[in-house]
Automatic annotation (TrEMBL):
This is ABC transporter substrate-binding protein. Belongs to the bacterial solute-binding protein 5 family. SUPFAM superfamilies: Periplasmic binding protein-like II (SSF53850). InterPro entries: SBP_5 (IPR039424), SBP_5_dom (IPR000914). The keyword Signal applies. GO terms for molecular function: peptide transmembrane transporter activity. It holds the Pfam family SBP_bac_5. Residues 1-85 form the Solute-binding protein family domain. GO terms for biological process: peptide transport.
């Protein structure tokens, strides 16, 4: 995913690949089923769970994020566009 350059959060911090990765890692590693129900539901569980579909998330430069999936997931784009995953 190529991110728009020049976007900032309300506090002035840059919106970049690191911000996306930190948010997805926070959700994936939390294992808090109540707080992050949609993450578990949309991505087959949390990091380390057998069904978790995301193998890795890496930056390819400051404004590009690469998701590697363990297997095809047809609704992946729809899933990451859901409001619970807004950054």
């Amino acid at each position: 995913f190529e991110l728009e350059e020049g976007v900032k959060f309300h506090d002035g911090e840059k919106f970049n690949a690191d911000a996306v990765i930190k948010n997805f890692e926070r959700w994936a590693k939390s294992k808090d089923e109540e707080k992050f129900y949609y993450y578990k539901s949309m991505f087959g569980g949390f990091e380390g769970d057998e069904g978790h579909v995301i193998e890795s998330i890496k930056a390819d430069g400051e404004y590009k994020v690469v998701f590697k999936l363990k297997r095809p997931q047809a609704p992946f784009l729809k899933n990451i566009a859901m409001s619970p995953f807004a950054i």
